[in-house]
Amino acid sequence: MEESLDAVGLLQHVERDVEATSLPVSVTADWLEEDANETTWNQFQQPDWQVALWAIAYSLIILVSITGNITVIWIILAHRRMRTVTNYFIVNLAFSDVSMASFNTLFNFVYALHNDWYFGLGYCRFQNFFPITAMFSSIYSMAAISVDRYMAIIHPLKPRLSSTSTKVVIALIWVVAVCLAFPQCYYSVTRFYYPRTVCMVDWPGDYGGKHQLSYQYAVILLIYLLPLLVMLVTYSIVGRSLWGGQIPGEATDHYHSQIKAKRKVVKMMVVVVVTFALCWLPYHVYFILGSFNIDIYKQHYIQQVYLAIFWLAMSSTMYNPIIYCCLNQRFRAGFRHAFAWCPFIKVSEEDKMELQHTHTFRVTMTRSHRRESAHTKINHACDANHTERETQKRTERTW
User: Fold this and answer.
1) Selection from 6, 63, 13, 43 nearest residue 321 by Cα
2) CA 142 to CA 144: how far, in whole Å?
3) Is the pTM of this model over 0.90?
4) Which residues lie below 8 Å from residue 112, measured CB to CB, with a gap of 6+?
5) Which of 32, 80, 228, 370 is found 20 to 30 A from 385 (Cα to Cα)?
6) Residue 356 above 50 pLDDT?
7) What is the CA 196 to chain-centroid distance, rounded?
8) Name one GO cellular component term (predicted).
9) How many other C-beta atoms are found inside a 10 Å radius of the C-beta of residue 59?
10) How far, in Å, are 110, 114, 186, 200, 233 from residue 27 at the CA level?
């Protein structure tokens, strides 16, 4: 599979103490037994200071990701003005990221450090299953946003996704994700090789056989290369439309502000996509190289390499809230609202207006009031004219 989202496994099972738990890399029991006969000690044992540094690094991911993504979800769902098609997909993206940080990062980190699976068969299956599901949901939410931006900017007259249709698309993304990750869950097993227990994906046939490699390459294609290609095409076309031509000099201020707003949204999402692609690239390369030369997993330095690569991949879950806050004024206002309890954060009147529907409502009411006033004046004038004509008629009849 695509290395199930836990390189540890490969690392481990190559080592005999190990066997990939959350990523698809799995080894066969035969191999583990063969490796186990060679040594019973853990060659990946690290000094305490090194373990402490890695623990701090991974704790940072979990803390920032959970706090940031939950705040993003609150900003969108708690404010009607933020409930747009794009933002519904951002909610799904944030949910996937916070789930990955909560249910995958810590457990894989512990497994990578100790090469010993402490969490039982049930969680072993979940750990091999959920990371692929969450990653699929994340990247296809980004792809859906790119298609939505493409339709809104390139084909503005065509119907857009409704709120209901958006939720249906999100549900379909999760259904396909579950189906894609199911083999990882189905073939997951725990095996005891003295003195450790390993969590592995026990594919039919030997490690590196057609089942395991076919699944691994299919996952890389479907949850990395294909959606990135879709986003490259859509954002290239959108970028050429928004930045490729001059804005007409006679265009209205409203037109200029619309173009600027669209550019900001597209720029923000491009940064999100590029960040995701760069964070996960070393991870996929790591497992592709391992499928051609498994001996690299037996190198003494490989644990540090894997921990660094896995940290970079998992860190993708914490960057998006930071990007939203830096590049989007409404999200920035939302974060100020959420953390207004901090003594050094001040919420301005402009921040309050950014997330409220009242601004639009006031504009609408002002325009409505002006129209009503105009109508009232016209009616008064008509009434006055009518009264004057009636008085004149009565005067004529009297004469």
Assistant:
1) 63
2) 5
3) no
4) 6, 7, 8, 11, 303, 306, 307, 310
5) 370
6) yes
7) 35
8) plasma membrane
9) 13
10) 19, 18, 15, 7, 37
**CA–CA distance, 153 with 70 (Å, rounded to integer):** 29
* Domains of the chain and any CATH numbers: 54-238+263-347 (1.20.1070.10)
User: Residue holding tokens 């979990």?
Assistant: 62
Contacts of 27 (CB under 8 A, 6+ apart): 9, 10, 13, 14, 19, 20, 200, 207
Mean pLDDT of 126-148: 95
CA distances, 28 to each of 205, 212, 254 (Å): 8, 10, 63
Cα–chain center distance at 133: 12
Evaluate if residue 372 carries a pLDDT over 60.
Answer: no
Residues 6+ apart with CB under 8 A from 107: 21, 22, 119, 123, 127
Closest CA to 275 of 337, 215, 231, 210: 231
Q: Tokens representing 219?
A: 């996952």
DSSP string, 346-369: ---HHHHHHT-THHHHHHHHHHHH
- Spatial contact of 7 and 186, defined as CB atoms under 8 Å apart: no
Q: DSSP string covering 119-168, please?
A: SHHHHHHHHHHHHHHHHHHHHHHHHHHHHHHHHHHHSTTSPPPPHHHHHH
Determine the Cα–Cα distance for residues 18 and 31; give it in Å rounded to an integer: 11
Cβ atoms 24, 215 nearer than 8 A: yes
Query: Mind listing the pLDDT tens digit for each residue in 247-297?
Result: 555 467 677 788 888 889 999 999 999 999 999 999 999 988 887 777 787
Sorted by sequence, the CB contacts under 8 Å of residue 263 that are 6+ apart come out as: 242, 243
